Amino acid sequence: MEVVDSQTHPPHLFSVYSHTSPAAGDSVAHASTVMRFVRVTALLIFAFWVWRYMRDTEPLLHGSLLIFHEAGHVLFMPFGEFMMVLGGSLFQLMVPAFFVALFAIRRDGYAAAFASLYLAASFAGVAIYIADARAGELPLLGGERSNHDWTFLLIEMEMLDQDTTIGWYVMRVGKLIFWASLAAGGYFAWNYRSPAA
């Protein structure tokens, strides 16, 4: 009969460890499934909110984008009148685009999908503003028709008669980003991996 020397053979080599019991494994799997549904539901709720904004301007989402729009006018002021006026719409798009890039670099696809949906909303807001250049029906800060950014910009570019066409194309970009974000977000929600992993 062979005798095992516990000094040369550590005891753990001869022990059978059960890291998780079947019940614990089922519990972990259930929690994981629940979290998947929570993530998907959160994404769908935000997507529905963005879609409502894209169909009919929603005040809260519009207000958040307006903050970036007005900040853009100030930030681009040193670059001349044209860039100062364009800077509102430009910065309104740049902020959500920055967060899409940031989360993508961090390999957090789920968070990037949320930022992309916000970017889609921003494109929609700019599209609606462009298409209103001649009609002037949107309420503006200060209430003066002369404050309409895209009336000024399209006159400067001699493209005022194309306002609705340009707006249509910008809206199509927004909708493309929306559906791509929703599809990618659904995938990342279901197959979520922590950025740290």
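Next protein, fold it too.
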Amino acid sequence: MSERSALYEGKAKIVYGSESPDELILHFKDDTSAFDGEKVEQLAHKGEINNAFNAFIMEYLQREGVPTHFIRRLNARESLVRHLEMIPVECVVRNRAAGSLSRRLGVEEGKILQPPTLEFFLKNDALHDPMINTSHIRTFGWATAEEVEAMRCWTLRVNTLLSALFAKAGLILVDFKLEFGRFDGELYLGDEFSPDGCRLWDAQSLEKMDKDRFRRDLGGVVDAYREVARRLGVPLALES
């Protein structure tokens, strides 16, 4: 990695500036964390897989008409993206009960949710990303009513598109989170989409193929990510 000043460093990525003020560089790390950073490890090659996986998903969504910040993959670990003014809200879709939903509501893990649920969380590590509603979002000025509706519509559209995409690969998209931001007055999908930010189960065995393998000490995290990428046809190596 070259000597550059990071604008921001998160749990799984470092954000760098670029030659253009309208563009940023995302560097995907091997760091893996859970439980608000209480459990942290480095898993070799995870950053490379997530960078390729994210590029594949973002390009697919763009072809389907979803506006995203993604521009292009630069190298094995880095991608060029638009410089968004991020909205501090996570949009979470759940197709099956798992994780915090099961704990909060006492719902059996794996229960099919029909229709899928859509929840909002404030992106704030110090507060442990509390659950919020649309009234909170508007009242505290995190997003306008129009932006909230746009985030809702785009998130559900992404769910429809990706549920079908993963189903073709023999996978169940259990849940995922999205983040959005503003660029030149328009709303764009930002951040990343990788097995770090979603739950994926094998459609036959219900084996976990995502970061729950790390959370639950199941092992084989990188192998599971690589297998998901293989099934989807994600090119892990950049073409020369």
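About the second fold: The radius of gyration is 17 Å.
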